[in-house]
Amino acid sequence: MNYMKSNICFTGFLAVLFIFAEFAESVARQRMNPTYDINSLALSWEQYKLSNALRVVLQADLDQREVSIEFWIHAGTRNETQGKYGLAHFFEHATPYGLREDRESRSLLRSHMTKSNAQTRKDYTRYYIQVIPEGLELGLKYAADRLKADTSAITNKSIEKHREKVLAEIERNSRNPLWGAKATSAREAGTFGKAHPYGHSAYDTRLENNNFTAQDVKQWYDEYVFASNTILFVVGNFDLEAAKRFIERYFGQIHQKDERTSFNAVSAQHSFESITIETASEHHNVSLTWAIPEWDVTVDAVCRLLARILDKRLASDDAFPSSVIETESSYLLRMYELAGQFGVLANFSSLDDSTVIENGLQKNIDRIIRLGVSEEELAQARQREITVNPGNAQEIRLYRQQNRAAGRRALVYRKPRLLYDKAAETVGIDHRGYSECSKKMAR
User: In DSSP terms, which residues pair with 324 in a beta bridge?
Assistant: First the structure.
């Protein structure tokens, strides 16, 4: 057997503050460079609300070949209660499908559909499909049906079918030493604290997933699936006015509640401990992580630049033994609505080298705290962070990135912010922005 060691014994908030203070001095000397081209990210959006308070974000681009239709429900793993961890992800699988009573339309939609999937995150659950332009109306009708389903469609028989798929997914992911359920739960409990809404994984245990019932799924649907708790995105090759008509027709009658779902957050309680997890992987991982207590677009920009710099430093550190396969910081960076995660990791083949590698990761963190970063490193990190491959600009996956960026901002601030905004913040942030960021970290 092999091991994933999630070492959480880092110096926490104080060290992060020192990083940001040192980093701010370099950033203040590096104002926006006019050679950075971020215009390709400046896509225009139209945003409005239906009468039932469902939010709609449209971005039409006739140069695209497809249309991405997705809706986000503002509920995720943070909304789970102890004993029901994993329910948000289980619900993602068990959410009733659209066009349930129309076999002909389902068949036609499948002929138009190029991709479909769903994701469970800390703050939201996201469902999306991609269709060719001719499938716009059916795609919207399908999505709307999922948001106004009769929960009688959630039966014990359907739950057992979904349970089989969920347990199979958990088993597949258990082979990943970094993102399997056991490793993720340990790392996130150590990073945020077990009592924090982010302090457990999306899967949690097989035992809990074995115990979920049709009634659990129905209650989740009734509590969180309603108009003002939902954002609809339509992005790509479609007619704007036609889309608005279809959206009004199919989404206008979705259930609305008078009040928004209440949610009381607690502060992240960082755990200063070392956790070792046994996994079935042939490789090993050491990760050092800590919590960022709160964030905004400035904190996001600072953390992404710092992670880029650490990526490069770790990759060029000759002191690591030859058993190291990969080192990285960006891979562990997570920004959520209530807090964030920052860290460094190493993937390696020889367990005997684990202590040396762990110490090497710590030394790189200590070095950047003591000495800060150079202007050259900062400039290079900015360029890597904002560079978009021109070949990707005409592909729908860029728009899925835009959707994710816009969706997170829409959930938190009630207006979509795009990759453009984050890029602009990255290359143009000033000393005042970093000072404010440091104050937040100090809290």
Answer: 348
Q: What is the pTM of this model?
A: 0.83
Residues of the chain with pLDDT under 50: 1-34, 388-399, 405, 412-413, 415, 417-420, 429-435, 437-443
Instruction: State the Cα–Cα distance between residues 23 and 297, nearest whole angstrom.
Output: 16
Q: Which of 422, 150, 420 is nearest to 296 (CA)?
A: 422
Q: What are phi and psi of 277, to 5 degrees?
A: -120, 130
- pLDDT tens readout for residues 264-307: 666 666 666 777 877 777 888 899 998 887 666 677 778 888 88
Q: Which residues contact 101 (CB under 8 A, 6 or more apart)?
A: none
Dist. CA 285–CA 371, nearest whole Å: 27
Tokens describing residue 198: 């982010």
CB 228 within 8 A of CB 52: yes
Domains and CATH numbers, the chain: 2-39+267-390+416-442 (3.30.830), 42-251 (3.30.830.10)
**Cα–Cα distance, 346 to 332 (Å, whole number):** 11
Count the neighbouring beta carbons within 10 Å of the beta carbon of residue 369: 18
Element (H, E) at 383: helix 375-386
Contact status, residue 216 vs residue 85, Cβ threshold 8 Å:
no
**Helix, strand or coil for residue 332?**
helix
The CA distance from 288 to 286, in Å, is 7
In angstroms, rounded to a whole number, what is the distance separating the alpha carbons of residues 11 and 17?
10
